[in-house]
Every structure is written in structure tokens, then in C-alpha cells.
Amino acid sequence: MGPQPKPLETYNYNRDEINQIAVSSKGFLAAADDSGDVKIVNTIQKCLYKRLREAHTSICSSVQFIPWRPWTAITGGLDSKLAAWDFSKGRTLFSIDYGSPELQNGSSSGSAGQCFNPAFVHSLAVSEEGILGGLYKVCAVARGDGAVDVVNLEYELAPAKSKGPPWAATSTMSSKRTEVGDGSSNQSQVKRIHLDYTMGGHTAAVSCVTFSAFGEKGKFLVSGGNDASVKIWDWSKGFSSETNSNAELVLDIDVKKKVNWLCTTPTDSDNLIVCDTSKVVKVYNFR
């Protein structure tokens, strides 16, 4: 508030350009940089806590903490990899390589591919705890090949023995959903859904994803891309194995410019805020 405001704290632990930061409820700050490293800073003790490295072989573009697992973070990079970390120990819990032959097009048959861009991970969004009645604990992944993946984190982070036999984890996969045995019954648990251009999705790289903060929190997934469009998805339908339904595109907005970032506001006005390559910040109202 003074005439010459100064930063309260400055941290110089990263040695390369920082692409994203995130702060946890316990006071940890994560900074993802171009070297592929993520520095975890304890902002209470004002010191470097951990250095997360060797999961990414290229630029680490995004980092998020997982709200319901206070010692877990998730990262994505321009090596097409998604990695979850126990940052208290500095080790990975699981990783997904979207550049692998079986995943780069979202299906084992490779039928859902589009554009020649690699499946770089440009942005991540982790759902808040308790959304939609507490049924879902997921992460949305914005990919460079125009697809958006929604990953069941509860499944991926579960102990290996609870996931059933190895054959179950690689069973039925389509361009829209993957079903795996849950290890405890004959019912199937959806491991991952894949939202691509065959469902009305993006035709160029997806730059940003977020879960809606207005209305029923987390009900919609919003994605923006280099195709100058914003897509709003009713995503949870794709995880309903009982009805065997698919995620649904509910709204497509042409914003005329490439989308750099977007967010929603938790207000009665139901606003979507879009930052694109123009000089104007756009606010869309859904009431």
C-alpha cells in the first residue's frame, strides 16, 4: 500500500524460465520450468523443500497440487508426459506417456487421431474435492494434438493390487473411454475418457482446461485452443459405466482468436473469462 511496493519474498531456485506456479493449502509453492524440473518451496520456512526431476525430458509446462492428497502434485510437459509425484519423497507415483504408440491418438486402434502435432501437455486442471457428490477425483489434460483427456486419479493412484489382473488394465479402449476392472467386482471402472474432434472437440492444440466454478461446481469442463474456440463439456457422463453413456459437448464458442488462458468465476452470474491473442479480455455470461 506504500508508494514503493516491494515483494514480500523472492525465490531464485529455478534456473530456467518458469512456465507455471501453484500453491498448496499447506503453504508449498511449486514452480515448473523449461529444464523439466519442478522446484517445491516451503513458503512458511522460506526454503527449498524438494526438487522434482527426471520424469520430464523436455519443458515442464504445467503443475498442480492434488487437494485431497496434500503431499501429491501432478505435472505435464512438452515431452508428452503426465506424472504424479509424492513430493515429500521426491518420487513419481505414476506416469502416462501420451507420445507412446498406443496412447498418442487416444485409442489402441489409433482411430481418433487428428493433426500432426505431438500430444504435448499444455495445461492441467485438477478437480476440487467433493465435486458432483464426491464421486469423481480427476485431472483434465490439454493436449497438443487437439484432444482433452480426463484421467481418473483415484484409479491411477490406487495400489497396484487393487486394480485387478494386468489384462484388465489394457482391456476395452475406444476413442472416448477406457474401462478397466476395479479388482473387487465384475463391474468396470472407467480409467480415462478422451474428448477429441470426433466428438466436436478441438481441431488444433488445446492450450487450457478448467473445471467450472459456477453452478454445480465441477459439472462442466471448459477447454480453449489454438483453433480459436472454447468448448464446454458435460464430462462426467463419460465416467458413468452403469449407463454406458459418453461425455457430451454442450457448447461451442468461436472467440475469433487463439485462446491463451481461461477461467470461470464462482458467482451467481456464471461468468467465463477468456484471455486470447487480442488485447481484449472477454467475459461470457451463461445466465
Description:
Helices cover 3% and strands 41% of the residues. With 287 residues, the protein is mainly β. The chain has one domain: YVTN repeat-like/Quinoprotein amine dehydrogenase (Methylamine Dehydrogenase, Chain H, 7 Propeller), CATH 2.130.10. The chain has a five-stranded antiparallel beta sheet with strand order 9-10-11-13-12. β15 and β16 form a beta hairpin. Keywords: WD repeat.
Q: Please tell me the overall pLDDT.
A: 86
Briefly note the structural class of the backbone.
mainly beta
* Rg, Å, rounded: 19 Å
Number of helical elements: 2
Q: Kindly estimate the percentage of residues that lie in beta strands according to DSSP.
A: 35-45%
CATH structural fold name: Methylamine Dehydrogenase, Chain H
Major sheet summary line: 5 strands, antiparallel
Q: What is the CATH superfamily?
A: YVTN repeat-like/Quinoprotein amine dehydrogenase
Helicity level, as a percent range? under 10%
Q: Poorly predicted ranges (pLDDT <50, ≥5 residues)?
A: 106-113, 165-188
Number of domains: 1
Number of DSSP-assigned strands: 20
- In one word, what is the shape? globular
CATH C-level class is Mainly Beta
Strand order of the largest sheet: 9-10-11-13-12
Q: Tell me which CATH architecture applies here.
A: 7 Propeller
Order of helices and strands: EEEEEEEEEEEHHEEEEEEEEE
Through-space gap between termini:
36 Å
Keywords: WD repeat
Region (Disordered): 164-187
WD repeats: 199-243
InterPro entries: WD40/YVTN_repeat-like_dom_sf, WD40_repeat_dom_sf, WD40_rpt
